[in-house]
Amino acid sequence: xxxxxxxxxxxxxxxxxxxxxxxxxxxxxxxxxxxxxxxxxxxxxxxxxxxxxxxxxxxxxxxxxxxxxxxxxxxxxxxxxxxxxxxxxxxxxxxxxxxxxxxxxxxxxxxxxxxxxxxxxxxxxxxxxxxxxxxxxxxxxxxxxxxxxxxxxxxxxxxxxxxxxxxxxxxxxxxxxxxxxxxxxxxxxxxxxxxxxxxxxxxxxxxxxxxxxxxxxxxxxxxxxxxxxxxxxxxxxxxxxxxxxxxxxxxxxxxxxxxxxxxxxxxxxxxxxxxxxxxxxxxxxxxxxxxxxxxxxxxxxxxxxxxxxxxxxxxxxxxxxxxxxxxxxxxxxxxxxxxxxxxxxxxxxxxxxxxxxxxxxxxxxxxxxxxxxxxxxxxxxxxxxxxxxxxxxxxxxxxxxxxxxxxxxxxxxxxxxxxxxxxxxxxxxxxxxxxxxxxxxxxxxxxxxxxxxxxxxxxxxxxxxxxxxxxxxxxxxxxxxxxxxxxxxxxxxxxxxxxxxxxxxxxxxxxxxxxxxxxxxxxxxxxxxxxxxxxxxxxxxxxxxxxxxxxxxxxxxxxxxxxxxxxxxxxxxxxxxxxxxxxxxxxxxxxxxxxxxxxxxxxxxxxxxxxxxxxxxxxxxxxxxxxxxxxxxxxxxxxxxxxxxxxxxxxxxxxxxxxxxxxxxxxxxxxxxxxxxxxxxxxxxxxxxxxxxxxxxxxxxxxxxxxxxxxxxxxxxxxxxxxxxxxxxxxxxxxxxxxxxxxxxxxxxxxxxxxxxxxxxxxxxxxxxxxxxxxxx
Length: 777
Hints:
This protein is of the alpha/beta class and 777 residues long. Strands 4-3-2-10-11-20 form a six-stranded mixed β-sheet, with helices on both faces. A hairpin with a 7-residue loop joins strand 3 and strand 4. The protein has 28 helices and 20 strands. The chain has four domains: 13-181 and 732-777, Nucleotidyltransferase, domain 5; 222-285 and 596-649, no CATH class; 297-454, no CATH class; 461-583. The protein is elongated. Residues 293-321, 421-492 form a coiled coil. InterPro entries: Actin, ATPase_NBD. Keywords: Coiled coil. This is ARP5. Belongs to the actin family.
């Protein structure tokens, strides 16, 4: 165990809480109830949200039915019928999820057939009955801010002509929610956060000032979609596919509005902050446990012995085959050498004809083949010299070669073959003896060096340590210089790369009159070639081969390996003998990966080290790491940190999400200071609205939303101006509660459009009642 400045056992970090990825549980949603106390003439309130529908009679304190605004069309092949499934019933069967659709495209309705199916579903669960074939209840319905003419026209036609309702009134969900949370005639600033958009509407004495209303094209649906894109970029190889339900739940459960986004973003990846802010989400994963039948020690020993014997047998067979092939190649080489010597008196043309008859293409082909044979024999001899040296002594003592010194003319063919084998054996034995002698000399030198080092340490340890550290510093400096040189080779504009290209150019210009000293020397020795080729002069001089080292990186890489090996040896000595040299002082530790200083690591893996690196350090194989249960679980985890504040921040800085619009706080400041009277005295409109800033809608449930609005608004209000920011009692249901309250008040008496008025004035006719859209043409 290497010494360390750190404690042997570091304090372990507490295990992070793991949250599980939530999806819709198939079959867990109860079917929508049927209302039993239906009454005609009682207004029906329909809050048609793009994500959720809320339907009920206004004589009830709560909506009778709340269900997601989705529909699925299923074809029953056995019954030959097409079934239409709506709302929570879609989640009753897993096969229906793939065909789930919505009638909305953004905030607008695009499939009116689906809307009609869903209205039928709503009225049926309300228990609507009729004796005249008409829907005898007034309808109060929400619509998006700045609803288009075509949308209102088609809805009018559907309700008046298909259902023949007596009268209809449209309004905005955020204004109905404000109406429910006030006395109905209050002044305030309404911030409505919906699934498709966010609106800021000033209200004066219960009437919305629609000419000054503002809309931001960002809501809950865009938020979950943006979060999905962020996670896809963060985890591009995540094994599970995240659907909209996953990301919606992640957004609702873990995102929050930062009170000071820029300051928090600057420190959110600090270890102490990340320890509190990082959320670990585990996706479902099945880890198959492999059950292996363990064998006894006796069986394992038998298998090992069997494998050992089989290996020896195969080695012996392979050795015999190699020896036979070498003998054949030796005979072939000797035959061709003798052929060349016997025909040395012939001209080149005559000798080439003999070679062609022997199966060669030309003289060059013969030369190449002969060189190849010679190279193969030399490699085989060198390989045998590096073989097992344990039997070398026995070989040199017991083996004799009686045929080696006998001339060939005194031997028959079999003895000549045996003589060649004995020559090879003798050469191998002599080579092994030379290697042993060299190793013995090296060991003596090493032992003498170790003795000198030991005596030096015993005499003066401090001096020995100082000298070793100086040597280590020199090696490290040399290593860094070589690394810089290697890096500069990659840059074609660097001096090293330019010199390399110059050397290549000089080599290329040798045949065209280069004036370099090496080129002139090669041209002078043009006739002294290895294979007597006057066109090939390279290699006649040993210095020519240095050109390859100049134009390649191989020499630098080899030198790096040698230096690195020397560094490790010096560090090993220091770790062993120097009491003040620790593992943290080594060159490798100084350049090792520190995950705590890596922003990317903390962003992806959170405030915990990557267990893959720890397993690699323990020596586990890549297959063991890949199949380890902890690694499989880790690969199915998502870390939410920056995304928790980044996604909600788009409401205040839409440019983050790619919108060229102003944020909520900027719009509020513009309305109170410029669009309205800008009077923050007691009787001013801006003063009254600052005292009643009202937030409603699904995004109002985000933690910190109200505090952020209050902080940003106080930033531009005059000192001393009272400010009251409040959230709806129930941001999701208060719109329906406001519709019910409004329907049962005198304010709704003259706010309906009757069927007769629709037929007389047309679908563009609007009755303004202060809680809906207005005609500003």
